Amino acid sequence: MLKANAIGCERENRSLFSNLTFELEPGTLLAVTGNNGAGKSSLLRILSGLVCPTSGSVSWQGQVIKPGSSFFSSHLYIGHKIGIQPALTPLENLQWLLGINDTAKSPLSSSQMRSAINAVGLAGFEDYPCENLSLGQRQRVALARLWLNAPTCWILDEPFTGLDDKGREVLQNRIREHVQIGGIVVLASHVTLEDFPCQKQTLYLGSV
Amino acid sequence: MIKALVCVIWRDLTLYIRHRGEWASPLLFFIMIASLFPIMIGNDPKTLSKLAPFVIWICVVLSLLMSLETIFRSDYQEGTLEQFVLSPYPLSILLFGKCIAHCLAMGFPLLIVAILFGLLLNVSEQGIIVLWVSLLLGIPSLSIVGGIGAALTIGLQRGGILLAILILPLMIPIVIFGANAVAAANQDLPYHSEILLMGAFLLFVLALGPIATAAALRVSIE
Q1: What ipTM was estimated for this complex?
Q2: Which strand ranges, in their side-by-side order, compose the sheet holding A75-78?
Q3: What is the DSSP letter of A145?
Q4: Cα–Cα distance between B95 and B144 in angstroms, integer?
Q5: How far is CA A94 from CA A79, A141, A158, in A?
Q6: 3-state SS record for chain B
Q7: What phi, psi does A16 have (nearest 5°)?
Q8: Distance of CA B198 to the CA centre of its chain
Q9: Where in chain A is the domain with CATH 3.40.50.300?
Q10: Cβ separation B83–A101 shorter than 8 A
Q11: Which among A173, B5, B54, B214 could bridge B91 via Cys, Cβ 3.0 to 4.6 Å?
């Protein structure tokens, strides 16, 4: 499904990784690990189609991804900058995020969004501006998208940042569920992934 | 696609309402500069009326420049623009939505303030109507052209002055035609060709501006 063909990445004339080839089938979790600065985020940005690789290409269902390809309606990327506007409430943030991402004909109702906000443990905060929420709570707002019409492929860059133990558990369960029903998850994380009893691959970036 | 466009416009208008201070400062800037002119020039109605079209148009351009500097900034910092790039909808459409919201939120108040100042500075009745039409055609053009510059400079620290240097030359034709149309109407001279040229310019930037903004933004995001 999601395939990296000999991709390489350079930053400031320094090669982060090169000739990286792998293919992710439905129902796979890919955990990207490595030291700080090894290129985990760069790899995830390349896989999501945000940045072009310095060499090689990324393809989805056999087609190289480029602006306008079907890949953009079947994946979701949450990076370091989570895309949550501090002046808007969690509900408003989800509304516009889904508005620009959802290609389904019937729009999601606000009660569905409220239940997603509930699922990430933010019940009661739906109508507070996000600037009054803590870092972890904002992260939860961004993650609430995983409960709403979630597409096949998730690319998550350090999604556990700022989450407490309970939040981690909820997110881990959600990821496990998604992989079990045939989704693809690419995860950059320092968290040990022993708790994921599903098909998983680990990619270590950097010199061994 | 329309749904996504409306969604972006709605979101941006909500943000303008929440950030009232940011929204109001270009307007206050306009009022300050425009009121300085009569104080400096003196109260001769004839001189004021002659200079008014130019004064108003200069103030419009400067206050729009001021507001354009921030049009993408918070979206860039918060990662909203990354989500725009990853959306299945064309990036140019989403950014066009941001431009429409900018026109609605900044352009309309400017339109009203500019006409008030036209009256204060003794512009003739016909001049006021032409001022209104020329701003109606000119503000969206300036906003779209400015959007291209803002998209190019978002990655830079203190990109504001660079933005001004980049896009002022592109704004000059609009300002010249706009101010001249008003000046001509103010003196009962024909003004139609200027207005038609401004309309042509607006159609031109409407067709190409969003695509250029999207291309500029993709470069900046990397």
Answers
A1: 0.89
A2: A75-78, A153-157, A184-188, A28-34, A200-205
A3: G
A4: 10
A5: 16, 8, 20
A6: CHHHHHHHHHHHHHHHHHCHHHHHHHHHHHHHHHHHHHHHHCCCHHHHHHHHHHHHHHHHHHHHHHHHCCCCHHHHHHCHHHHHHHCCCCHHHHHHHHHHHHHHHHHHHHHHHHHHHHHHCCCCHHHHHHHHHHHHHHHHHHHHHHHHHHHHHCCCCCCHHHHHHHHHHHHHHHHHHHHHHHHHHHCCCCCHHHHHHHHHHHHHHHHHHHHHHHHHHHHHHC
A7: -80, -45
A8: 14
A9: 1-74+151-208
A10: yes
A11: B214
pLDDT averages per 10-residue partition of chain A, 208 residues:
87 84 87 84 89 88 84 88 88 87 74 85 86 88 85 88 85 87 85 66 75
Chain-chain contact of B8 with A81 (C-beta, under 8 angstroms)? no
Q: How far is CA A65 from the centre of its chain?
A: 17
pLDDT in tens, A23-67: 888 888 888 888 888 888 888 989 888 888 888 889 888 888 888
Rounded CA-CA distance B64/B163 in Å is: 12
A87 touches chain B (CB under 8 A): yes
A87 contacts B19? CB cut-off 8 A: yes
Q: Examine the pLDDT at B161 and tell me if it is beyond 70.
A: yes
Given this model, what pLDDT does residue A145 score? 87
Mutate to test the interface with A, among B5, B8, B12, B82 (most CBs of A within 10 A): B82
Do A100 and B221 count as a contact with CB atoms less than 8 A apart? Answer: no
Q: Which fold has domain A1-74+151-208?
A: Rossmann fold (3.40.50)
Q: How many CB atoms lie within 10 A of CB A54?
A: 16
pTM: 0.89
